[in-house]
Amino acid sequence: MTAPTGTALIALDWGTSNLRASRLGEGGQVLETRAAAGGVMAVPERRFEAALMALAGDWIEAHRCPLIASGMIGSRQGWREAPYAECPAGLAQVAAQLVRVELAAGATLHIVPGLSCIGPDGQDDVMRGEETQLWGAALLPGTCCVLPGTHAKWAWLGEGGAVRAFQTYLTGELYAVLTQHSILGRLMQPGQARPEAFAKGVELGLVEHANATHVIFAARTAGLMGRIEPEGLPDFLSGLLIGIEIGSATRHAAPASVVVLGDEALCARYETALDVAGIGHRRARDDATTRGQWLVAQAAGLVDGGGRLST
Amino acid sequence: MTAPTGTALIALDWGTSNLRASRLGEGGQVLETRAAAGGVMAVPERRFEAALMALAGDWIEAHRCPLIASGMIGSRQGWREAPYAECPAGLAQVAAQLVRVELAAGATLHIVPGLSCIGPDGQDDVMRGEETQLWGAALLPGTCCVLPGTHAKWAWLGEGGAVRAFQTYLTGELYAVLTQHSILGRLMQPGQARPEAFAKGVELGLVEHANATHVIFAARTAGLMGRIEPEGLPDFLSGLLIGIEIGSATRHAAPASVVVLGDEALCARYETALDVAGIGHRRARDDATTRGQWLVAQAAGLVDGGGRLST
């Protein structure tokens, strides 16, 4: 079988800060990728079409193919709100709920809805973009997957690859605001990575996850008492927060193994923490986002459903 | 017995933001109080003596009596560091560890050391100022006392009124940084107090205290889903954080009742939350700070130990 060369889909990973556009071939393979700081919060006056045309206008003119977008672009602050699909949700539900935006250039953009989920405590949770990555990662039923980030997600997969349930943890954002704006940042000094301080934080966070708003104060007292040097305090707090997250997310039933999906450096940090927790892990494939976008487009009939995904 | 009228002690409640000076009579009663925004972080170039003389120089000149200070003034960033006394610690230990500062005006200032405590998790915790309030509140052995604030403290009293153990919760500071600097503040609108939203937050925080860094995300999703109006979201987050604190602090053994000590509005908030948690409570007396300072001064022999404290 020869590799197809035509462009079948333009796939947009459109988040809060960045816009990444990929041109996918007829087998779903990535032919070319471009990125810009054109995220939902970075585009002035919601001029999303202008931002898209600036990055990929030439592709849209040249290839006359459908576009698909996942991420915060479907939020209320985005281009067009794509109402959440409720969990459990798989490719079929989401493909039936794509929100169409007709572009002046003549092409059609399809926005993937995010997912909502009601937790055991009766509270709503939401994601936008991660659902597409989860499908792209082709996870087996029963898999537990963590997606580190500003708002880290823990997702549990169900039958047929559907997302059964998920939980958001504010870990990344807490790290940022506590480091920059709270007393915990006062004693911190920048410096090289301190793996030992990180591991100490993880251990403490795991044990004390049920006492999180107390135990983070250790990022001050450990500095005050000279137990951790100022250059180690940022990694200690990072470890604490990731340890709290892992301890909380796995408190009812620790999975034997989790899949880690996302940014390389953050994934490595989580893998270290999972080692400390004694939980196995494997990394998801790098192309989960574009692969998921391709699968949604296939399920919606935007691209050839018979085409085999190149792996 | 006639009330004594001379000034026996000048007592300084000297925290991060404010300096409050009280003139105490020979029975320990408050004769006069003054306050200024002269806290440790508010005095330029550590000119603490100038700040003190500006507020109470006339008292110091006129009365030639000892001065006592409790709070952050004894921290490394303060006037003179007063090393922590280790828990369990009572009046006698602390009275033996007062740090003397000779003033140019001829009087002597005695700085009360804070307390340190090693938790069951092996981590250090610290307080400065609250120990003096706890003694002033004259709590029975076995009492559990909560002091709401930026860094809320839960303290457990032991034999002879000693502070047996305590834990700091970052509740107040988390509320401030999350409201001002995180995504949780984005949907919030200022408005009247919303007691129902507060109570909902408390209930959720109590149940989900072991999942704190996840459940605070509800302060976003509840707004996103229209379950709580934008004006109710600040009180919902406040309730969540206080509920998490109470749930965490009482998770091993819920006390039948706790004593609440501190600022009126904050104490009222905690009392409402304790009602939701089904934990009894009573308010500590208002003059716990000056009463504690008097008792420390008595124990150190700075004032007449035979004088009976007017109640």
List keywords for this structure.
Nucleotidyltransferase, domain 5; disordered C terminus; homodimer; alpha/beta; five-stranded mixed β-sheet; 311 residues
Commentary on this structure:
2 copies of one chain form a homodimer. With about 300 residues, the first copy, chain A, is α/β, with parallel strands linked by helices. Chain A has 2 domains: about 5-140 and about 290-300, Nucleotidyltransferase, domain 5 (2-Layer Sandwich); about 170-285, 2-keto-3-deoxy-galactonokinase, C-terminal domain (Nucleotidyltransferase, domain 5, 2-Layer Sandwich), CATH 3.30.420. Chain A has helices at about 50-65, 90-95, 130-135, 170-180, 195-205, 210-215, 220-225, 235-250, 265-275, 290-300; strands at about 5-15, 20-25, 30-35, 65-70, 85, 100, 110, 115-120, 125, 145, 150-155, 165-170, 255-260, 280-285. Chain A has a 6-stranded mixed beta sheet with strand order 3-2-1-4-7-6, with helices on both faces. The first copy, chain A, is globular. Chain A starts with 6 loop residues before the first strand and ends in a 12-residue tail after the last helix. Residues about 305-310 of chain A have low confidence and may be disordered.
